[in-house]
Amino acid sequence: MRIVVKTAGLLGRYLPPGSTKNRAQLEMPAGATPTAVIEKLGMPHGERYLVALNGEIVPQRERAVRVLAEGDELAIMPPLKGG
Amino acid sequence: MAWQRKILRVNLTEGTTQIEPLNMQWAQQYLGERGLATKYLWENMDPKTDPMSPDNVLIFATGPLTGTMASTSGRYAVITKGPLTGAIACSNSGGKFGPELKYAGYDLVLIQGRAPQPVYLLIVDDDVTIVPADEIWGTTVWHTEQWIRSRHNSPLLKVASIGVAGERGVRFACIVNDLHRAAGRSGVGAVMGAKHLKAIAVRGTKAVHVDDPTRFMQAVKETKAVLWDNAGRRELTELGTNAMIDVMQEFGGLPTRNFQDVQFEGYDKIDPEAMRSPKPNGHVNLLTNKACFGCTIACGRIAHIDKEHFTIVNRKEYWHASGGLEYETAYAFGPVVGVDDIDALTFASFLMNEHGMDPISFGVTLAAAMELYEKGVITQADTDGVELKFGNAEALTIMAEKTGTYQGFGQVLGLGSKRLCEKYGHPELFMGVKGQEFAGYDSRALQGMGLGYATSNRGACHLKHDVFAADMEDQTGRGKAKPCKESQDLISMIDSTGLCLFTTCAWGAEDFHRQIDAACEGEWSVQRLIETGERIWNLERQFNNAAGFTAKDDSLPKRLLEQPAPSGTAKGRVSELDTMLPEYYALRGWDTDGVPSAETLRRLGLA
Question: Could you give the CA distance from residue B480 to residue B475 in angstroms, rounded to a whole number?
């Protein structure tokens, strides 16, 4: 299945080559979860990312169990604060 | 040790200066900088004092670690009663001014009275002079810094000064040091102006001694390594704080058009990628990053404006590099006023530094004026003929300049948003708390941020608590009171060390503890440091309560409490302050009116 991944900041470096504006289309197997996407992209573990699926927050406890669907839009944002 | 054990007391009415010993008992209870200066303020003035009167006290304070080899040790704070809010003001700045003040031998400078004529204060170690400022009164911050160094033939002088905004009482005037670092919020620059004090110039040649040099050096080495290896630090170094704009856009917490919206369609024209990308004519906004004194992070941005842009096309005086966009300036000149022209935003940022104004308060005040204009409450007859519509980049830069130079409608904007909205009969359009405008986070999407805004002792502020992690996990108000209270206490302590809050991307309480305990005499445990922070928070609250603030002031605008977020991850939500606030008061040991109980005051040594 194909999903859209969006990110920001330095996490953009983990998107596939050719991605623009911190946005990429990604081929994932059926049953994939947000955690599986983070692993596939090679984003560092242990970071407290902000994860949103189709504009809805996915809490940490659900990231390994929430199943993605064709055409989903998954945002994985860096753990920034302040500013 | 770490403290210089001296304060400088200046009475501008009498024209006197006096060096006094630091009260070391207070230093042991309040640490330094924000905390220690709050204690000195409390003991030296009546909280009911008019902020613009000679009886207001203005304190420049360093922390015990300011000027040491610890990372980010360039911080100082300005503590006074704020003219924007009527509450305690606590504005923090970096650059190099703070360490220089410490090297001159002072933990803090306490300024009272009002000079009969404009003056500046010249401090060269123990030699302190009050100097006439007639030749620089009415000039900009940038001119003042250069003029003072030239006048004294001393390029190493560090200068903190105000522009015309501060001289003329713009309620959100700030104090700028090192050209583009600022003690920005609550109008501390207007207090300086009311005292007829144009600048403080300082040169110091003394050492800062620490209690246990070997242990301190080891602690500094190890905490620097922790900071260097941290992903959040890398984001700040490479992208600056403006990396947040993409996150808030996605989250739906990016206040837009005076908080009518929470996402901004033009965000990617002003984000870090836009700052680094060439325009069609080849111009690139961002030149480099810049560090304050002793900083491992270097989050500052240095930028320049396209010479072909309408703002500076015939104004060569702005063709140089200067402080570029940070998240709060990008928000305050971008989404909240609906503008997406990166050169206009950068020019407005330059003007804030040149004239000495807080960009957050200016931008949100302009946003309120734009909403009043679009609703037909004010017209071009009020705005000097300027079409004050959201998205008008020219209006942004014209009004920034008018406010900075105190001309025309800029004088009205200089009142700040609360007074401006009241003047035109629409107080509900003021977006802030206790008279101070919101930073770039919408409290319908970030519930803990809303509680922090409502309870911040200096009025709406995003830097006095840290509930980001909890807010990005759960968009209800559940469980937000505890991290809000605990982070307020922690940050009150950090703000009193002389180090930068941004280190908390990597450091926890233990990292600060190691450095403080090695540098400062006395036994400092983590628990004692946190309790010190709690003491500081409660003393600030006591100051505000004595000044006339009550629980009614711990509130948010109706827009955030009643109008649901129109889009984003929090679509349909309003702030849940009504459920968070009672829980917060209980955790603080305050009664339902927000007054610290006798037991709380006794426990903290404040009774």
Answer: 10
